[in-house]
Structure formats: C-alpha cells, structure tokens
Amino acid sequence: MGKKFDVICSGAALVDMVAKVERHPLDDDEVFVSDLTLLSGGAAANTAYACGKLGLTSAFLGKLGENDVFGSKIIEDFNEVNVSTTLLKYSKQYGTGSAYVALNKEGDRRIYAHSGAANYLSKEDIIEQEILATKVIFLSSLKNLEPFIEAAKIGKKNDIPVILNPGMLIIDQGFNSITELLQKIDIFILSQREFSTLLHIQENLEDQIIIEKANILLELGIKVLIVTMGERGAFLLTGQESELIPSVKVKQVIDTTGAGDAFSAGFIYGFVNNLSYAFADLKQNVTIGNFVAGECIQKLGARNGIPTSKKVKLIL
Fold first, then answer.
1. Which residues are bridge partners to 232 per DSSP?
2. Is 181 within a domain?
3. Residue 194, SS3 per DSSP
4. Which whole-number Å values give the CA distances from 266 to 4, 90, 269, 308, in the listed order?
C-alpha cells in the first residue's frame, strides 16, 4: 500500500521574532535593533517546510494555540509549500509558542524560545493510524519526550525509519534521561556542540574522537550517526564505516538560523527516495543536506534560502 506522506515532522512550530543587531549585548548592556522581522520557525516546522519546498509530500505533527494569530501565520506559511496541517493538534489553554532571535552582522545568533502550546503535545496526540501513513518519521527539538517516544515506538514496530535531530532542549536533559528515545531511533543527526555535550567531551572535537565516542551511540541500536560540523561539513558514521563529507562553498553567510533544520530536510529528500542504509547512498544524502544548508545560510531566516527540488537535481 502506498504511503500518503514522504515524511511526518514532529516537534515545535513557533513564530520567530528576528532582531538584527551590530553586536550581542554584554552583561547589563543594551544594543540597538536595526530591523525586526516576524518569521515562522521551530526546528521541526522548519524541516517540514523545507521538505515541502523540496517537493516532498510533507506533514507537520505538533500543537498550536487554538485560533491565535501566531498559529494562523504558521498554518498560512505551511500552505505556501503544501505541507499538510491535517495532523495538527490544538491547545485551548496555551498559546502558540514564540522565539526571540538576536542576529549580529557575522550571522551569529542568540535564541530565547518560549515553547507555549508546542511543549504540551502529548503521548495521546500520537495516533498510530496517522503515523502509519508516512515513509519516514522526523523528530526534532521538543523538551517533552513522551510524544517522541510514542512516535518512535510506532515507527520501530512498523519498520518506519525514525530520524532524530534533537536540539539542545533534548540534549540538555542528559544521556541517561534520553536513552529510551535513542534506543528507538534509526538515524541520529546532531551538531558538534550537541555531540560534545551529550557525551561530555571536553577536548576539541577531532575526527578520531568522534569515531571513538560514536560507538556509545551506535551500541544503542542507532544505524546511522551524523555530526554536522559547520563549515567543515558533516561526519557520517555507521557501525562499519565513517567519513567526513565536506560542506559546499557559499558566497556569503547571512544567517545561520535553521542551517541544521535545512540539512535534515536535504538528507530526508535523498533518503526517502530509496530508504537505503548503504554507505554510498547515505553519503549522497549527506551531500544533499550540506547543499541545502549552504543555500539556507545565504538568506535571512530559516526558510528563505531553501532551494527547490529542481535546483537540487541540477546540482546533483
């Protein structure tokens, strides 16, 4: 039986208020905001949007405030790229979340996130028949782990690949607290900072250290580990092989917001086409992820730089 969706992305959908500043403030300091922009955001929502723009049949599963302005904007933006909102849940008690982003001229950012309704997605909101309609499950950056564990259980039981891109909201909970979730995922995508924090690595993250420490995660049953390394690219590891896949050169970095979310979307774009764990295929998927992330950071916001599938195919 054919699947309704290529990917269901679950996690937070927020509205980002992006402030452009010359520099980030020091303690007891004040800086001038030269421009303030309102953008839809949230890691999982960004990935769902990017997947939609790349031409995948994408759906978002998360919780918004009922009939509020921020929620309406999020839905409108999803509709632009045909992301299905049929799986959305709504809270009468909590409003749609928001994030406050300060962005300096070098493209470095500081984010203060208020999850709002997003963090009240519950285990009961994860309905097996809805999850069964997808080829791939993608989970990202939600402090409340219960719905993620439930979705991953359903994926495991029904041979649906589960991808986790955790974000610091999950990583900060500590290895022991998130082990149950990690044991149920197939592909783990995380930044070098998240990798170091999760595994308590104090020294510089050299390639050999990544290879050695990766075994701790791979022994949990994770099939594929990807550590994104910024301008160096992304480190791909399986139980048998490992390789650093170099990044794509970009003209100018404008805003690194959403680069990890864009990478995940690019990887998913490649992965859903063959659902293969062969190392050569995974390398190709990581290369696509690097390209999409590289396009993303050349525009303001997490979504404006996402390329179309036509451009990805031309590059490939």
1. none
2. yes
3. helix
4. 20, 29, 5, 11
The four Cα atoms 184, 49, 306, 245 give a dihedral, to 10 degrees, of 0
> Per-block average pLDDT, block size 10, for the chain (316 residues)?
90 93 94 93 96 97 96 97 98 95 85 92 98 98 96 98 97 98 98 97 91 96 97 95 93 87 97 96 97 92 90 83
Q: Is residue 23 part of a domain?
A: no
Residue 156's domain spans which residues? 5-13+42-95+120-315
Rounded to whole angstroms, how far apart are CA atoms 144 and 130?
20
SS3 124: helix
Number of domains in the chain: 1
Maximum CA extent, the chain: 60
Task: Find where tokens 């063959």 sit.
Answer: 274
127/121 Cα distance (integer angstroms): 12
Structure tokens at 84: 């299905």
Q: Please tell me the pTM assigned to this model.
A: 0.92
**CATH code, domain with 151:** 3.40.1190.20
Task: Specify if 35 maps to a domain.
Answer: no
Q: Which residues contact 25 (CB under 8 A, 6 or more apart)?
A: 31, 102
Distance of alpha carbon 81 from alpha carbon 74, whole angstroms: 12
Assess if residue 114 is contained within a domain. no
Q: What's the token pair of residue 305?
A: 């730089």
